[in-house]
Automatic annotation (TrEMBL):
Statement: the UniProt record of this protein carries the keyword Transmembrane: yes
Reactions catalysed, as given in the entry: ATP + protein L-histidine = ADP + protein N-phospho-L-histidine
Chief location: membrane
Enzyme Commission code: 2.7.13.3
Every Histidine kinase domain range: 321-536
Domain of life: Bacteria
Name of the protein this chain belongs to: histidine kinase
Subcellular localization, as worded in the UniProt entry: Cell membrane
Organism in which the protein naturally occurs: Acinetobacter rudis CIP 110305
Pfam families xrefs: HAMP (PF00672), HATPase_c (PF02518), HisKA (PF00512)
Swiss-Prot/TrEMBL keywords: ATP-binding, Cell membrane, Kinase, Membrane, Nucleotide-binding, Phosphoprotein, Transferase, Transmembrane, Transmembrane helix
Length: 542
């Protein structure tokens, strides 16, 4: 079935793995970017938060601080609250940032509002709380005013103090000549009119789009303060994309490894088993786990090992038995030839010739039996299955047996000619012939032949019963082995070579059926029954 295919499972596993890794990568990017954007907001706010904190701290009285905060709120067009510190709950990390004169940024994604919390250096009992709905270009242009308000206390030392406060700013702060900037005439005119200018720069580098705020310096007409460039937040920078890609490839590699390892392990087991077989050890068997192709391969290996081991054992037994079976008629032929050499009477010599001829015929029959057995044992013969009338085969065997004048009663139980089975006629005839011949050999007086289709299982069957001594239960399995005979007789009187039932057993196997032996409930002797599928394939109704 498709779901049991190892390749389907690998492909399905890869698809599921890719989907899971993609989901994992997406979630990981979201988590990382959440932290990155928080750090980005805080880094942009740290510098201005430090400057505002310093400017508020310079106010002498609390009322002056409140007035300065009010003016700053009007200038920024943002609400700024002067709150008692104990009314604002801060986390441990936020408290640490306040102590380091850094900004604390809280962002409400549902309302799209950022809250900026700023500590005051000489007033730890109060905090500045700024609500930022939207940061406009005009608000950005007034940011340099807070820096100039800080530097007003250091006339002539602006450049030096700009370098000192640079450590609090994520972006650059520097004083430059207007001529060093690539500005158009309109931008230069606005700077000379004491207005700030915002510069947008697009770049193909990793920084991407940047923003710079250029503000004219008081009392220095040819110089400007440049805040920036500030890179716009990049949701998928090269480092993050490369890291996520490498991590995804690593996870995919681990997943593929996990999918391939079981298959590799099973293949190694099969390879090791084949190497063991090559060394001559046929005892190793593989464990069959699951229902995929590799499990089928392991099962096939086990079946092949069983078959090869059985063939080797059968070959050894065949060699031993054949050597014994051939010696008897050969010895009789040699003895007859010697007797003929010493005897001159014609009648006696003619009698010896007849005996020798019978031994030669016995040798021919033995060779035929051995060839048939070997052919059936080594592999599946070429079978030509066809629909036949079962009773025709049974009647043919009964007629042929009666023609031998065995003086035994052969009874064929009535069977309708409508019973049609799919079978190789030649081999079915051989089965019935061997079973009837075996029954004739050991019965007292009567042999019964029957057949049909079992209504319970739907399988076809043939049955041969006799009124002989029967077969002991402990020997019912052994009699199907090659050259196995329970009477230990090897004389012409007993007939047979111990291959007939072995041939029947192999034919039943290649028919896809079974052969059973028990006690006949009617005649009291042995009863042999062979079952096999009445039809090999289900035929479609037209």
């Amino acid at each position: 079935m498709l779901k049991q295919s190892i390749f389907f499972r690998i492909y399905a596993g890869l698809v599921i793995l890719v989907v899971l890794v993609a989901i994992f990568g997406y979630l990981l990017v979201q988590i990382i970017n959440y932290q990155r954007v928080q750090e980005y907001r805080e880094s942009l706010s740290d510098g201005i938060a430090f400057i505002i904190s310093e400017d508020v701290s310079r106010q002498q009285t609390q009322q002056q601080k409140i007035d300065w905060i009010s003016d700053a709120s009007d200038l920024l067009e943002l609400p700024i609250y002067y709150l008692e510190a104990n009314k604002v709950e801060l986390s441990r990390t936020e408290k640490k940032r306040i102590e380091e004169q850094k900004a604390v940024v809280r962002y409400d994604a549902n309302k799209n509002i950022a809250y900026l919390i700023i500590g005051i250096r000489d007033d730890p009992g109060h905090l500045l709380y700024v609500q930022i709905d939207n940061l406009t270009e005009q608000q950005m242009k007034v940011l340099p005013i807070f820096i100039w308000d800080y530097l007003v206390y250091y006339p002539g030392q602006e450049a030096e103090y700009i370098e000192r406060i640079q450590e609090h700013f994520y972006y650059g702060l520097k004083v430059q000549k207007i001529e060093s900037l690539e500005l158009d005439s309109e931008q230069i005119g606005r700077l000379r009119s004491d207005q700030s200018v915002i510069l947008y720069r697009d770049s193909a580098t990793i920084r991407g789009t940047t923003i710079s705020i250029v503000s004219p310096m008081p009392n220095s007409p040819g110089e400007v303060l440049v805040m920036g460039p500030v890179p716009m937040f990049n949701w998928m920078p090269f480092q993050l994309a490369a890291g996520i890609t490498l991590l995804s490839m690593f996870l995919l590699s681990l997943g593929v490894y996990g999918l391939i390892v079981p298959m590799q392990r099973k293949l190694k087991q099969v390879n090791d088993a084949l190497n063991t077989m090559k060394s001559g050890d046929m005892s190793l068997r593989l464990s069959v786990e699951g229902h995929d192709e590799l499990s089928s391969l392991a099962s096939s290996y086990n079946s092949m090992s069983d078959h090869i081991q059985r063939l080797i054992e059968a070959q050894r037994e065949l060699m031993r038995a054949v050597s014994h079976e051939l010696r008897t008629p050969v010895a009789r032929i040699r003895f007859g030839m010697e007797m003929m050499a010493d005897e001159e009477e014609y009648t006696y010599r003619l009698h010896q010739v007849e005996l020798i001829d019978k031994d030669i015929e016995a040798l021919n029959n033995l060779i035929d039996e051995i060839m048939t057995y070997a052919k059936l044992e080594q592999g599946m013969p070429s079978l030509n299955f066809e629909d036949i009338i079962l009773v025709d085969v049974l009647e043919q065997v009964a007629t042929e047996t009666e023609a031998l004048k065995t003086k035994k009663k052969i009874e064929l139980l009535p069977l309708s000619s409508d019973v049609i089975v799919e079978v190789e006629r030649r081999y079915l005839h051989r089965v019935v012939q061997n079973l009837v011949g075996n029954a004739i050999r050991y019965c007292d007086n009567q042999v019964t032949i029957s057949g049909g289709i079992d209504p319970n299982t739907g399988k076809a069957f043939v049955c041969v019963e006799d009124d002989g001594p029967g077969i002991p239960e402990e020997d019912r399995t052994r009699i199907f082995e090659a050259f196995a005979r329970l009477d230990d007789s090897r004389t012409r009187a007993s007939g047979g070579y111990g291959l007939g039932l072995s041939i029947v057993s192999r034919i039943a196997f290649w028919f896809g059926g079974t052969i059973e032996v028990d006690q006949s409930p009617t005649l009291g002797g042995a009863r042999f029954i062979m079952y096999w599928p009445a039809t090999r394939f289900k035929k479609k109704k037209v």
